[in-house]
Amino acid sequence: MKRQSKCTELRYRDRERGNMIVLVVSILAGLVIAVILFMLGYVRILGSHSEQRTAIESAALAAAKDLSRIVVEDPNFGFISLSDGAPVGTSTAAGDKYFMPVHGINTILGTIRLDMIVADQLNDPVMKDFIDRDYNNAMTAKDRLVNVLENAVSGAPGAGSEPRDRDGAIVDPYDSAVKAYKANVIRQTANSKFVEGSLKLQLGCVVGGGSTNIPIPKPETLSSVSGDQRIGNFYKSYTNIPFGDKDFVFAGIAEGATIVDNNKFSKTIPGLPYVIPSIVRAEGDQMISTTDGTNVHKGVQKAAACAQPFNVYDPKPAPGILSISFPDGKPPEIASLGSLWIEPQFLSPSKDTQILTPLGGDYPGGGGTLTPSTWSAGGGGGGGGGASGNTPVSMIWSSSFYDWLRRGGTKVDINSIKAAVSTPFPSLVPANKGQANVFGFNSDGTVRTGQLTIQPMPYMSISENQFVAVSKDAFTSSEPVKYDIIVRDQANVRGRMNGGRHGGEPLDNPVYAAALAAGLGGTGGTYGGTVTWTPTGASILGLIGIQGNPWSGGLLGVVPTGIAILGPYGLITLIYPPTTPNWVIGPNNDFGQGVLPAAPITSFTNGPAGGAQRPTYTTNGSVIDVRFRKVIPILAAPPPLSVLAGPRYKLMEYGGGSGP
After folding, report:
1. Residues 325 and 302 in one domain
2. Full residue range of the structural domain in which residue 508 is found
3. Who contacts 464 (Cβ-Cβ below 8 Å, separation ≥6)?
4. Which of 50, 64, 119, 482 could disulfide-link to 307, CB 3.0 to 4.6 Å?
5. How many C-beta neighbours within 10 Å does residue 297 have?
6. Cut 0.85: pTM above it
7. What is the DSSP letter of 100?
8. How many domains does the chain have?
9. Are residues 353 and 210 in the same domain?
10. Which stretches of 154-208 are DSSP H helices?
């Protein structure tokens, strides 16, 4: 009996032990399932958070890219944007049907700062005044651009005021951001839904700044940029980098659109004189539904990210040509570009100077009418330009030199500019021959120079709404000969709003472009290339020679070889009628009126009806031309020599004859 009871007890204990094992296994299985469910939920949460991060970053990047596409038309700079743009935009066509370039706001600021350094190195207060004017205009332009960008990210800029790109297409950064966010669907969760209307965009800055793609000036020793104001060879954004009495704060824009640290985002940065808020911050909500197997949990996840727009830096392959032209031969005193700053006669306001603007078209040959200009200098002094202005030639030169310099952008090498200014013109072309000395920029910003032989024709047209300055008897050389000085400035007024049918872009000039291409860059430049224009037809008078020593008064006499006139500028020996036409005679102007035969004109070209890239974007055209025209009085004479009677005339080299 006892054995049976003991067996029964053992069986009961085994059964209890088995039940316990089952219970433990069941509990453990439940715990494992719970842990697995928890881990799956946690993984889903982590996955959803990660993918929402990807989505919000995609939204920020999409908005930043759109911001770089927005183009605004400014009355002083033409088309402006966060990014530079080549002249290819179909909505930027000027009156000549060629497309206009787009100027990045950082490029505008960097160019002005560099040009201030050049003006300081050249000790030119007049140039500084014109740069100050551009600086003030840049402050207005950046405010105009920021206002458009702020409206764009609001999501509701208003019908008719939508921002557009260079092709005229509407740009909607908010819509692009929403689409980019939704395209990055959260896949690891059972249910997720974007909270409509929750996406918000705002513009701001990055505290501490970052790298731009605007290079600091070369050489670094003249850049006035410290180590904490740069990253590598580029300006640092959201950092004041002043020069002189002007503040320069560059926007956060770099080579490509990139994600930046959201924790460093700020609407503004205390202590800076101004900011250009280009960093876009995107913030959005996502409704997430998760389950633990029994219960459904819902919640809103918030995410934010910041992105920086891009700037496609424009290399400016052909900024344009500055030329100093001596079609009647070069006076010995004008030895280099620097002579135009220091020659005492150019500093005098006593010379009668007309500053004229073609209105209604180019002049001559484009239907325009030369009209007294309202052009005036800033605080540098001097009179304005009217029919009887007294603006010194040196002031006009400073303005025009700056108009050429600023087209070089931020790549200009300061030391190369200084060397080009001080380096003498070469003697490749004899001084008694017509010549032009041309200046441009190499791709690295050094000055490229060339020299070519020229004749008084063809004349250069002047662009509508730009200016030409005519200073009569502005310079008397030691020869002694008097010279008129004519300055043609094709780029004084920029953009199609105020810059005329060509928007302040260069004049097509293949002859000068070929001479510049033939030259090789270097310290001060090297010279090369000669191009001669040979006219056809007959002249009225043929000039055999001008003998050097002057006498006062005038005398008309007959010599065996023809007619000799002894005047205050030397002995002029003429043959009438000419046997070999070497010279023509015409009125005392540099536009070709009254010249026999009719003078050819180097004119602007026009693009096709549908528009085209401007040829002078890749091939240098004329920006500034300073022309020294020799003045020789032809004295009144009695019959039968009445052909010589009348007002003062100018003799101009024609054909292949030697100059005086």
Report:
1. no
2. 321-653
3. 95, 358, 359, 360, 361, 362, 363, 366, 368, 500, 501, 502
4. 64
5. 11
6. no
7. P
8. 2
9. no
10. 173-183
